[in-house]
Amino acid sequence: MPRKSKKDAGKVAEKIAEENKKVEETKVEEKINVEEKEKVEEIKVEEKVVLATVIEPQKIIPKVPEIPEMFSVERWKPITALGKKVFSREITSIDSILDAGMKITEPEIVDKLVPNIKSELILIGGRKGKGGGIQRIPVRITAVMHKSGRRFTTNAFVVVGNENGLLGMGKASAVESRDSIEKATQKAKMNIVKIMRGCGSWQCGCDENHSIKYKTYGKCGSVRVELLPAPKGVGLATDVETRKILRLAGIKDMWIKTYGNTSARINLASATFDALKKLYIYERQAAAEEVEQVADVEGETVVEAKVEEEQEAKKILEEAKKEVEDVEKEAEEDEAAEEELEKEGEAEGLVGAESEVETKGEVE
Ligand SMILES: [Zn+2]
To answer: How remote is the CA of residue 199 from the centroid of ligand 1, in Å?
Structure first.
């Protein structure tokens, strides 16, 4: 028995050891299984996250990140001499800049001096609408063919004005439509000009700035434009895009005649701007001519006055000389006469004196 028992005991021990090993192995297997499961779950979670990141933005599109503006008055550091003067408030009105004919090279100058400036987009773009025709859009999109396909650029045309005699226009292109609009606005601010207004209508006859003083012409490409002053109440008898420009310039009544391909809206707008710009140029030319004429007249009078003064001085000198000569002559004559008189007196005086004495004596 003891042998058996020993053998049995050994066997039992081996069996127990084997069982233990098996249990351990199963445990390890279980552990591995658990780890694998966790991994799989993690992958599933990751997949879910990936799906979420893909799907969620489509649901919540409208949140656009706020991009800081390229040009803002608060963070403006002036570069040009004119900009520094405006920044230090040495110049406080835009009229002085425009009257002096200075060129504005920083758009913040206009932002600073004209705080109530407004901008408007001219609809230069177009896409084919339903049922034919063109649907107008604010930005013109052009394409260039490349190896990899089409490359797009956007063009924008912006008008700025303060609705009180200031107007500017600008055109720019960029990849993003937003950038092109921004650039065009800055260009328009730098191209700002003064518009002379008035009332040139014989039917109205007031002196208010509701129309223009006289008719003008403008030109760009094939488009020619004729602007005519109109009486109060007529309104802006123009197309939609030109109306935007005239409203920003501060004109309320106007007639317009157009010739050429006026569906080219950039050319139409540029021609209108050209015509409006000429009003102030005419005024400045007229003022300069007047100044020249006045200067000429003043110059002539000055020269004449100088000549006259010299002549007068000569005359006075001559007269004085003549007077002196006359006086001398008179003096000589007087002397001569006195001498003669004295001689005569000497001859007659004695006789006279005697006779007087005689007469006196007779009386006494
Ligand atoms: Zn009037």
So the answer is: 4
User: Mean of the per-residue pLDDT values for the chain?
Assistant: 82
Give SS3 for 265. Answer: helix
Sequence-distant (6+) residues with CB within 8 A of 334 are none
pLDDT of residue 364: 45
CA of 117 to the centre of ligand 1 (A): 25
Q: What is the pLDDT of residues 6-32, one digit of tens each?
A: 666 667 777 777 887 777 777 767 777
CA-to-CA dists, residue 38 to 27, 52, 123, angstroms: 16, 21, 60
- 204 alpha carbon to ligand 1 midpoint, in Å? 4
Alpha helices, DSSP H only, in the chain? 2-59, 81-87, 94-99, 107-113, 177-190, 240-249, 265-363
- Å from CA of 141 to ligand 1 middle: 42
How do the domains of the chain map onto residue ranges? 1-57
pTM exceeding 0.85: no
| HEC sequence for 29-86 | HHHHHHHHHHHHHHHHHHHHHHHHHHHHHHHCCCCCCCCCCCCCCCCCCCCCHHHHHH
The answer to whether 253 and 234 are in contact (CB under 8 A) is yes
Q: Convert the pLDDT of each residue in 71-83 to its tens digit.
A: 566 778 888 888 8
Ligand 1 centroid distance, CA of 234 (Å)? 11
